[in-house]
Amino acid sequence: MGTTINWDLVKCIDYAKKNNIQINTFRLSLLTSQQQYLLAKAARLPNLTGSASQNFTHQNAGSNNSTTGGGGSGLNASGAYSLNSSVTLYNGNLINNTIQQANLSVESSNLNIIQQENDITLQITQAYLAILLDKENIVYDTDLVTTSTGQVKLEQEKYNVGAVARYALIQLQAQESTDQFTLTNAKNTEKGDLLTLKQLLLLPSDVNFDIVKPDTIVPIDTVTAFHTVEQIALQNRPEVKSGELGVKIAQYGVDIAKAGYKPTLSAGGALNTAYSTGQGSLPYQLNNNFNQELGLTLSVPIFTKRVVKTQVEEAKINVDQAGLNLKNTRITLSQTVERAYLNVTNAKSQYDAALEQYNFNKEGYRIATEQLKVGAINTVDYSVQKNLFIQAQQAFIQAKYNELLTLKIYDFYRGIPIKL
To answer: Who contacts 325 (Cβ-Cβ below 8 Å, separation ≥6)?
Structure first.
């Protein structure tokens, strides 16, 4: 037997944020951005390299070796050792701009994570509310089956004593079968929607998963004005902030490219020594050949075959493209919020109409049920009234959860966390 878990909406959202593959991919991108930022900061520091070489020379008999100063065969050794360091003093503010650009990339990576979390939150909410809709349908459909079964039993007793025709009994039996079929479909739909949410959460296949149904679903009282929500979204949504950072990152790219026009000044130093056999003792040679060097190097770009100019122009194009991306993000977000506002207002009016329809048909169904008990209505008229009630009931349940879903989505754009 697998593990059995029952989660509410908040638990589902929290779990998805921690385990969703796309979100974790963005988290890895954040780690990469952080490493690039540390690398950019390290460019301010001097480097240090060490080198050592060791050579062995075999001299043939009779040859004259200038190093040893004499002839004869033998094995001679020599070595050279050095430490070198350099640091950039000026390069057209390239290092500082690269650091600032890398820091903005870290911020942008954080925003990408938040945006992906928002996307998965909406997906989880939609899947969760679909299951709640299924569960409520099952409750109502179960009640209908119970009522139908009771009516068939009562009608069967009447038929047994010859009080009603067989046709009337068959009509109620057919209605009972229809109600049972509807209930079975509702249960199957719930199983499918539970699987959808389970797979969205990336839960193991051996986990028996179900959700927690809230005690009450509160209908909408008021809907916040569209322009208020639009301004809140444009000021706070991560996709807009990420777009704004994209423009700044691109602008730093222009400054970085322009550094190619400017000279580079660097300071360097070196420590080196060497020895060779036949030239004295090793300590003496290492000390005698020990040299220290300090120097400045100025590199001035004179002609770069249009490389720098091309880099600058491409960087400017990137700024324009980032600006267009930001504009498109703002327009898309405004349109999305406007659509969400229309959806929630439509859902509210639909819910009000569905509730009124449901109440009237519920009362009509109640009266028809009482009339059927006393034989004041035939089974055909009763079935018509019941079917009207079932249609109204399904429309009401659908409208109730559609209203809830659209409200949660709309409120989410004004920064209200989703919970039931």
So the answer is: 243, 246
Prediction pTM value: 0.86
- Segment 344-362 shows an average pLDDT of 94
Inter-residue long-range contacts of 38-43, CB under 8 Å, 24+ positions, other chains counted: 39/102, 40/95, 40/98, 40/99, 40/101, 40/102, 41/99, 43/88, 43/95, 43/98, 43/99
222-246 pLDDT, tens per residue? 889 999 999 999 999 999 999 999 9
Residues linked to residue 49 through DSSP beta bridges, in sequence order: 84
Q: What is the 3-state secondary structure (H, E, C) of the chain?
A: CCCEEEECHHHHHHHHHHHCHHHHHHHHHHHHHHHHHHHHHHCCCCEEEEEEEEEEEEECCCCCECCCCECCCEEEEEEEEEEEEEEEEECCCHHHHHHHHHHHHHHHHHHHHHHHHHHHHHHHHHHHHHHHHHHHHHHHHHHHHHHHHHHHHHHHHHHHCCCCCHHHHHHHHHHHHHHHHHHHHHHHHHHHHHHHHHHHCCCCCCCEEEECCCCCCCCCCCCCCHHHHHHHHHHHCHHHHHHHHHHHHHHHHHHHHHHHHCCEEEEEEEEEEEEECCCCCHHHHHHHCCEEEEEEEEECCCCCCCHHHHHHHHHHHHHHHHHHHHHHHHHHHHHHHHHHHHHHHHHHHHHHHHHHHHHHHHHHHHHHHHHHHCCCCCHHHHHHHHHHHHHHHHHHHHHHHHHHHHHHHHHHCCCCCCCC
Round the average pLDDT of the chain to a whole number and report it: 92
Distances (CA, A) of 50 to 82, 269, 416: 6, 12, 59
Q: How far apart are CA 32 and CA 106, in angstroms?
A: 9
Model pLDDT for residues 180-235, shown as the tens digit of each residue = 999 999 999 999 999 999 999 999 998 999 999 887 777 667 889 999 999 999 99
CB atoms within 10 A of CB 225: 10
The alpha carbon torsion through 338, 344, 348, 351 (nearest 10 deg) reads 130
**Interval 114-159: pLDDT, tens:** 999 999 999 999 999 999 999 999 999 999 999 999 989 988 988 8
* Cα separation, 210 vs 197, whole angstroms: 9
